[in-house]
Design brief:
By secondary structure, the protein is α/β, with parallel strands linked by helices. Helix content is 38%, strand content 17%. The chain has a seven-stranded mixed beta sheet with strand order 3-2-1-4-7-9-8, with helices on both faces. The structure holds zinc ion.
């Protein structure tokens, strides 16, 4: 299946926290949208990898994803090397997305910056003809997505552009809450963590409000692009701005 947009996260829940609203906007626009989780989040303090898998499936339903896969790389220890790049190239070529969204270039969790670099390198290499990959014995076509955008997660980074998600904020929060072991669940007999307090979930909402304020809407998600975005005319630009 060919997808329009493929979002990658180092851990299940990265995508929900950072770009779920955008994915919902794109789904509402009729786009085909998928998520690839690089690891199972097995080092998370609360819950287990099995529970995270169920939570990710529940979140996928809320986000109406066409595809959600897990590459089962090692949480905390995956590397940006040939073995891992080939795994990412294979999944990029499988779904042939025009746009890839992935982790912030630097963040509190070291896996996030590492994942961003792995994605940038794999996206470039995926376009090279002489790197051959196969999917169940079938040789894959080369594919380089037109754009790679980094979403912003924990650490504040100044976005290059933001997407208005005002209509989708409720569903975004529902998709985050699908990770019942991770967020705002005082009933669980598990240690409190940085992300498990109500304050953390509040901070996700404040962040979306702040990015929204920058363009005069209620909620937005911010993105970083290393590739310059251009327009054919001021008219084209004005048509696109909120
Ligand atoms: Zn993460």
């Amino acid at each position: 299946m060919k997808l329009d947009i493929l979002a990658f996260g180092a851990h299940p829940d990265d995508v929900e926290l950072s770009c779920a609203g955008t994915l919902l906007v794109e789904k509402a626009n009729g786009k085909k949208v998928g998520v690839i989780d690089l690891t199972r989040g097995e080092l998370g303090t609360r819950g287990t990898a099995e529970l995270r898998k169920k939570e990710a499936a529940a979140a996928a339903k809320i986000l109406q994803l066409d595809v959600r896969e897990n590459l089962q790389l090692a949480d905390g220890f995956f590397k940006n090397d040939e073995v891992h790049q080939r795994q990412v190239i294979q999944v990029i070529r499988k779904y042939q997305p025009e746009i890839i969204i992935c982790n912030a270039p630097e963040d509190r969790h070291p896996d996030h910056g590492k994942a961003a670099q792995l994605m940038e390198d794999a996206v470039f290499l995926s376009g090279l003809r002489k790197i051959e990959t196969d999917d169940n014995g079938q040789q894959q076509q080369v594919w380089r997505p037109a754009y790679v955008f980094n979403y912003i997660q924990d650490r504040y980074l100044h976005p290059n552009f933001v997407i208005n998600i005002s209509e989708m904020m409720e569903q975004k929060i529902a998709s985050i809450r699908a990770y019942g072991t991770q967020f705002d669940n005082a009933d669980l007999n598990e240690p409190q963590t940085y992300i498990s307090t109500p304050d953390f979930l509040d901070s996700v909402i404040y962040r979306a409000k702040m990015y929204g304020k920058m363009i005069g809407v209620k909620y937005a998600e911010g993105y970083i692009t290393r590739k310059m975005i251009g327009f054919n005319s001021f008219d084209a630009f004005i048509k696109e701005i909120t």
